[in-house]
Amino acid sequence: MKILNTCFLLLFFLMLALPLAFIDFSSERVSVQENRMLTDHPKLADIRNNPETFVKDFDAWFKDSIGFRNELISLYKAVNKKRLGNIVHYTDGQYTYLIGEQGHHYFAYEGGILISKFQGKKFLSDKQLSNIAAKLEEVKAYLDSKGIPFIVMFCTDKESIYPEFYPKSIKQGPEPIQVDVITEYFQTHTSVDIFNIRQALVTEKNKYLLYNVSSDDLAHYNEIGAFFAYRELMNHINKYFPQITPYGLGDIEIIFNENGTPYVILKSGYTYKKFDSSFFDNIDVKRPFTDENHAYENKNSDLPVVLVLGDSYAQEYYIGKYIAQQFGKAIFINFTNLSNIREYINYFKPDIVIFESAERELSRFADSVIGIPELP
Q1: Pairwise CA distance, residues 38 & 33, whole Å
Q2: Over 50: is that where the pLDDT of 26 sits?
Q3: 81, 103, 136 — which closes off a domain?
Q4: Residue 93 predicted with pLDDT over 90
Q5: Distance from the first to the final alpha carbon of the chain
Q6: pLDDT of 146 higher than 70
Q7: Which residue has the higher pLDDT, 37 or 182?
Q8: Which residues form the domain of 72?
Q9: Does residue 11 belong to any structural domain of this protein?
Q10: Residue 106 falls inside a structural domain
Q11: Nearest Cα to 161, choosing from 216, 246, 228, 95?
Q12: Which residue of 87, 176, 289, 353 is surrounded by the most CB atoms within 10 Å?
């Protein structure tokens, strides 16, 4: 064992020393892989005259000149993009993804939390659940007093619909999964019309690809998944507005880009327009203005008004375009603004209110719901 450990240490130090032994001191070098000029060695005179600049320039030069640099870059790309092994993860910009089976990538934002969720570990405490239930019941009573229906919708992460492609090294937790446990808790402990879209999407998953495999937007369902999420939402909206006819598969056209990512359009076209961001100038809404704070007006102004307090899963290119098409006004505000719900009800005078949260955002959603002040 001692000999083996010694060999391992020697190999380790050799791996550290070889790149240093083959540092490239040449000048005017070009990196074809990065499409840029590499940094030249800084002037030694700067050590005395401008030491801060020298240190900065030396660091840039050293990173550009270390031995076997091109080979290391090629190895990095092989690991990142060619998916060598199912437990490897890669970063695309600010987002991290897990590499699953058959080329499937999984969004791993705050990866430890999402992996724990997949493993069936609780991510909302009993106290959080009871506090949310009490607050949702309070919101419902407030809206009931104004004759406004109230719906709560939870959207699912990709791994809840396609767990079979998740990295095999990570074991899935038992059924029911956490999003179902949480949903059932609120259904049992409140009178709120609350649901998640998991079963609706599982029913369609073998006929349609509902989440992208490994390109374009990997953080959300794709537009086909969003269409079935909209259909499930309409099952609840129709309890209160049976006159609104949900769109069916015959009403849409599915097209694909060069990566195979699907886009869904209404064959009949669209009759709504988007308001300018100044629409929100007279209310208290968190800035900067984002796609999660947006509003639309339909040509048919006699249709009811809907207020959606949700996240990016409700944006226009997901379920938002269908909702905007079937309501006179559709106002979408990020749920982090829930503390201002009374102001929004009084100002927008909605005919129905919908809370929406992604599965992975339920902890933030919980904090936002609990933060709603006491309603009269």
Answers
A1: 11
A2: yes
A3: 81
A4: no
A5: 73
A6: yes
A7: 182
A8: 2-81
A9: yes
A10: no
A11: 228
A12: 353
